[in-house]
Design a protein that fits this description.
Rossmann fold; 13 helices; globular
Length: 422
């Protein structure tokens, strides 16, 4: 049974889904709809959303610039964790949803709304990310999710386009331009169209933040990323805000076709989906921080951190940002990142992004120890006892296997001899 509501705050982007959902909620639930838009670096996408929302039936339009909070409280903790989902995805959409939903709940409280709504489909991950955040921050709010409402007849993007055209709602998409995109200043994602199969090559016209590899400059570029305790603080020795760092690296990385990922991923809801992600600045930051880790973290910490990073990525992807485990892991990563002060020099060329130099006052790399030249600082005879002890379990296992093999062969020989004599 559908909940009875009087005032709903809708997470509104001005894209296809929320453009048609706003009037649908108002008509179906006979309620007031407040459109809430979060500024996370979408560029020109929010330019006309106020006018569109009000013309589509919204009683109020609220927008909030959340870029600084996005960097400080969401992106930097994720960067410090090194979280990557399924080895490729830098979690650009995943990490933004908890912040949008958090502010949406805040707006609901300000306007005394009794419900919140989102335009995520019933097949995707975002429905989980939004609703888990609502539940964590205010379980009393009712949740309106049209794609899961049996009365919602717009079951395809083509149907949504037709609905918008019939009501004169301006949209970017058409039946020929049907990509579903999500953008913030960390990344942009592309789904739909030829990406709904796994054989078709993504078309260059899809790209927004970066150029095709073939059109990247023939000369490489270099950039130095400066860190303090694992947090990016500047570029090329110049201190900058987090927003400025990401913007500059997006521009530079995009010019050199860095950060393009074509991925078939495993969604939380159980299906596989294909998407193309552009994350130029984030790719550079991850490579730089990883290089700094290599010289500043001891082996045991580094290896264990990689295990925990994988779990952190799942928490972000699954929408569990506000769960106790994520908060506990943040404390772990804060400690792990304390030695990570220094600089990584990154080379960008034709879609490639790799660290070519690192330096840190906390570096554990000692040239004299790493050198092939034997010196007084390393007594190679110590390795004799170390290898004996380290290999003892394998030595014992090998001896047992050898003894067992000999016994088996002896038994086989006796059986063979007995069969001949009989």
């Amino acid at each position: 049974m559908a909940p009875q509501v009087k005032r709903v705050v809708l997470a509104y982007s001005g894209g296809l889904d929320t453009s048609v959902i706003l009037p649908w909620i108002k008509e179906t639930y006979n309620c007031e709809v407040i459109a809430f838009a979060a500024e996370l670096g979408q560029g020109e996408e929010l330019k006309n959303t106020r006018k569109k929302a009000l013309n589509s039936g919204a009683s109020e339009y609220v927008d909030r610039d959340l870029r600084e909070e996005f960097v400080k409280d969401f992106l930097w903790p994720m960067v410090k964790s090194g979280a990557v989902y399924e080895g490729k995805y830098l979690l650009g959409t995943s990490i933004a949803r908890p912040l949008i939903a958090k502010e949406q709940v805040k707006v609901a409280h300000e306007f005394k709304a009794d419900a919140v709504a989102h335009g995520a489909t019933g097949k995707g991950n975002d429905q989980v990310r939004f609703e888990l955040t609502y539940m964590a921050l205010d379980p009393a709010l009712k949740i309106i999710a049209p794609w899961k409402d049996p009365r919602f007849e717009l079951r395809s993007r083509e149907a949504a386009v037709a609905y918008a055209e019939a009501r004169g709602i301006p949209i970017e998409q058409s039946k020929k331009k049907i990509y579903s995109r999500d953008r913030n200043f960390w990344h942009i994602s592309h789904e739909g169209a030829e990406l709904e199969g796994t054989w078709a090559e993504p078309q260059d016209r899809m790209l927004v933040l970066s150029v095709p590899i073939e059109k990247a400059p023939d000369t490489p570029a270099y950039v130095e990323v400066n860190f303090e305790q694992g947090t990016p603080v500047g570029l090329n020795g110049k201190r900058m805000s987090g927003v400025s760092i990401i913007a500059k690296l997006n521009e530079l990385g995009g010019k050199h076709a860095v950060g393009q990922v074509d991925l078939v991923e495993n969604r939380l809801v159980g299906m596989k989906s294909r998407g193309v992600y552009e994350t130029p600045g984030g790719t550079i930051l991850y490579e730089a921080r990883k290089a700094l880790e290599g010289i500043c973290l001891d082996r045991e910490t580094l290896h264990y951190k990689e295990i925990v990073s994988h779990r952190y990525a799942e928490l972000v992807y699954y929408g569990q940002w506000y769960c106790p485990l994520r908060h506990a892991l943040d404390a772990f990563f804060t400690q792990v990142n304390k030695p990570l002060t220094g600089t990584a020099r990154i080379k960008l060329y034709k879609g490639n992004c790799r660290a070519v130099g690192t330096k840190s006052p906390r570096s554990l790399f000692v040239p004299a120890l790493a050198s092939f030249t034997m010196g007084a600082e390393y007594d190679s005879t110590d390795a004799i006892g170390f290898i004996r002890l380290f290999g003892l379990p394998m030595k014992v296992n090998g001896a047992v296997r050898r003894q067992s093999t000999r016994a088996s062969r002896a038994r086989a020989a006796r059986k063979k001899k007995q069969s001949r004599s009989s």
